[in-house]
Every structure is written in structure tokens, then in C-alpha cells.
Amino acid sequence: MLASAGYKYLKSSRRVLSLLEYQCLTMSHIKQIQSHLTVSGTLFDPFAAGRIISFCAVSAHGDLSHAYLLFLSLPRRTTFIWNTMLRAFADKNKSATVLSLYKHMVDTGFLPNNYTFSFLLQACTQLSDLSFGILLHGQAVRLGWEAYDFVQNGLIHLYASCNCMDSARRLFDGSLNRDVITWTAVINGFAKTGQVEVARQLFDEMPEKNVVSWSAMITGYAQIGFFKEALELFNHMQIAGFRPNHGAIVGTLTACASLGALDQGRWIHAYADRNHMELDRILGTALIDMYAKCGCVETACRVFDEMPDRDVFAFTSLISGLANHGQSATAIEMFTRMQKEGVRPNEVTLICLLSACSRVGLVEEGLRIFKSMTNIYGIQPVVQHYGCLVDLLGRAGLLEDAKRVVREMPLEPDSYVLGALLNACRVHGDVELGEETVECLAEKSLDHGGVHVLLSNIYASANQWEGVAKVRKGMGEKKVKKVPGCSLIEVDGVVFEFVAGDMSHVFMDDILLLLLDIDKHLKSLQLEDDDNYDKKLE
């Protein structure tokens, strides 16, 4: 018998311990061995108990609940046994249990080692628990474990996932053993915080890349609006011989949606089908958004119907696409379907629905939806919702009601709300309310060039040319310029951007000649129509 910390136990026989080394063990075998150890009085041998707990907790054929019950019954545990349980709960994403178990471990007098810290930091990362992670960092420094690879990489992952990039970069720069996972974590952290130039510099410096690092960089570009760069990197990824994974596909689809790159988006959809990628909620929603924004609403509907599981984001994406392409009635029908399927709308869903009602003049339906936000769904309206309500009332000519909403809304009206009211004034020729609205925008320093142009148009619609001249003169004195419009066109999978007034495109001469021919052709068609109309009158 051996004594340890005042506790005595019988050691298991070598023959029994050798049974635990077989590769094809099942829980049935483990329970038989455990029964034998219990009968022989050797179950509480830490080595034997540790082997049984390790199989039950970590093996694919194990049973974590059985391991935990045995763990709780042990009168003596080792650091190995504690680490095995921490690892098992971390692998099962039961992060809160990991941290709770660690506190119990420390309370019973055990100190963590480098393996312990790796599991704890994994749990903190999953929970985004930065404060506990900083506490663990301090403990690792005091106990001398900070320099170990497992601990250092875990700390870098934690700080990067919690957007503490200064701390992550300091540890990263001091690390001597950076693996591809650590590189990717830092790149992803910089990309998430909008520091894509730093992320790209690190990405280019990586000694070895994998598909996850490519995906992280593509997603980072897409998230901050660098859509052309995201598409270029996606193409480079394939040239480098990497097969796009789920994250790269979704990030690139986001870029295609924003650029209107339909051909590229279709290719990605075909690639996903060829490789039997699951049409899950994220991929399905990305495809719906891409097709809807590229004008292929029917294809977006088809993707939506093919999805085995639809959530609020899929419904919202399709409702938005339908509303933006003149199918507001269908968008509202989709909301009814959404309710029947038990999916609750979110703030964005309701913005899309109010916008749909506004476009087709469904004032009563829009008011009903607006009231249902707080009464049924418990969602407090924000400025965007009030902007949609003002637009709904303004388009219908209910300017006094729209003005009352702006005056009584509990939030400070922004350019979206006041812009909707100003546009209603333009449509219905209310010069006085238009002037009042522009003054309000000017007080808030929101009177950009488009606002002055809109007021000028209101004066022009009312034949108040003095007002037009006054506005134009004021724009000149204040050096206010209207932001130039831009358009995108996709040719052979490449997206080209044209800005109003910009003549720098390499094929600009050819483009102008073609536009001149189109203009002449349209004018000739107009003349033919006029001749035909005159003949009918004769």
C-alpha cells in the first residue's frame, strides 16, 4: 500500500492495467474493468482511475457523464485527472463548466501546469471572457508557464478574439514557435478590428498558409467593404492551389453581392453544388443576398425554398430583395409565411417590411407593422424605423402626420428621418415644410450637397426660380458639392467602376464612341415613333 497526502490506496495489478491499453475498447469493456477494480479495492488507484476517466472523457466511444461521476467519487485526484476533465469539457464547448471546475481545482490545493492553461484559455476564448483570461495570464507568468507554446498560443488566440490586438501582437512578436493557427488568429484579429493593411502584411509574411488563413483574410476584406480586394484574393487563393472552404465562399459571396458580380457569384454557387457543400443557414443566406442584389430575385427565391432550415436572416434577406425589386406585395406575403413557420422578425426585418409598405402605399399595413414592434415582438423602434414610417406617410401625401412623427419621436431625428421628410416635400411640392426641414438639417450639420440639390428641385417644381438661384448661390459660397454618382459593371468576371465626371478609364474613348452611337440610335427610334404617331393622327 502507498500513502499520499494521508490517503492510502491499493495499486492495480499490471494485468488489469494492460487491459486498458487495448485499442478496441468500448464502454461495456470499461465498465467491466471498473467493476473488477471496485471488487478488488483498487479503483481509487489514481493511475487506474485516470486511465478510465481519460477513455470515458476523451475517447470517441466514451461517456463524459460517466467520467464525471467517477471523477466526483475519487477521494484523491491528480493533476492529470483534473486536466483530463478540463480538456473534455473544453472540447465539448462547455466553457463555463471548465472555469468552474478550475476554481474547484485551485480550492483543493492543485496548481495548474502548461496543459491546464491551454484548456482554460480555450474556454475563455469561447466565452470571450477577457477579464478571466487576463487573470490566467498573470497566474501563468507567476508560475513560469507563459513561455510554453501551448500557453503562449492560447493567450494570443484569446487576445485576438477579444480584439486586444496590442497584447496579441506583443506576445506574437515575442513568440519563437508560431504555427499557422497562431498566424491566422492574429490576422483574423487585425481584420476584425478593421486593420486590414496590418492583416494583409502579416498574411503576406506567413511562411505557410492554409485554407483557414486565406478565408480569414477574404472575410476581413469583405467585412469592411474592400470587396474588389476580396474577389482578387479569392482568385489568388485558387491559383495557389487551395480549395475554398465555407468561410471563403461566404465572404466572397458577400463581395459579389455588393459589387453586382453575378457571373462570379454563379460560379461560386456551382462550385458549392459540385463539392456537395451543405446549404446551411449562412451559405443559403449569402446566396439569397447575392442573387437578390444582382437582380435575380427568382433564383434567390429558389435558393430560399431549397434551404432545409431557414432562420430570420434568410427570411430578412429575401424580404429585402423582394422589396427592393418592386415585389413589395410578395415581400409582405413572405412575412406572413415567416410567422407561420414560427420565425420571429428582428429589427432589420421590420425595416425591410416598412420599406416595402412605403413603396406600394400600404399605409394601414405599415402602421400595423410599426405598432406590432413593441406590442407583439418587444422591439423598441430605432431611428431607421422612424425614418421608414416618415417615408411611408410622406409618400402617401400625409405630410402633417409625417411631420408629427418627426416632432414626437423619442429619438433625435437624423439625416435618414429628415431626408425622408424632405423627399416627401419634393414629391408633393410643400416648399414651406421643405425649407423648415433643410434648416433643421443645417442646424445638425447634415446639410450635404444632396440636401441642397433636393431643396433646389422643390423650388423648381413650384416655379420659384429665385429660390433655385439662392440655393445654387449658397452652395457656391459654401463650396458645397454634390457627391458624384458611381456605377459598376461586370465584364468577363471583372468588375469595373465608373464615377460621374471621371474620364480616366483606359477605354474611355471607345466607351464615348459607343455611347454616341447608342444615343443616335435611340434618337432615330424616337423620330420613327413620332412619325408613326403623326400618321395615326392623319
Written description of the protein model:
The protein has helices spanning 14-19, 27-40, 46-58, 64-73, 79-91, 95-107, 114-127, 130-143, 149-161, 165-174, 180-192, 196-205, 211-223, 227-239, 246-259, 262-274, 281-293, 297-306, 312-324, 328-340, 347-360, 363-375, 383-395, 399-408, 415-428, 431-443, 449-461, 465-477, 508-537; strands at residues 2-4, 7-9, 486-491, 494-499. The radius of gyration is 33 Å and the shape is elongated. A hairpin with a 2-residue loop joins strand 1 (2-4) and strand 2. The strands form two sheets. The protein has a two-stranded antiparallel ribbon with strand order 1-2. A two-stranded antiparallel ribbon has the order 3-4. The protein is mainly alpha-helical. The chain has 29 helices and four strands.
Using brief descriptors, characterize the structure shown:
single chain, 538 residues, mainly alpha, two-stranded antiparallel ribbon, 29 helices, 4 strands, disordered N terminus
In short:
The chain is mainly α and 538 residues long. The protein has helices spanning 14-19, 27-40, 46-58, 64-73, 79-91, 95-107, 114-127, 130-143, 149-161, 165-174, 180-192, 196-205, 211-223, 227-239, 246-259, 262-274, 281-293, 297-306, 312-324, 328-340, 347-360, 363-375, 383-395, 399-408, 415-428, 431-443, 449-461, 465-477, 508-537, and strands at residues 2-4, 7-9, 486-491, 494-499. α3 (46-58) runs antiparallel to α4, α9 (149-161) packs parallel to α11 (180-192) and α26 packs antiparallel against α27 (449-461).
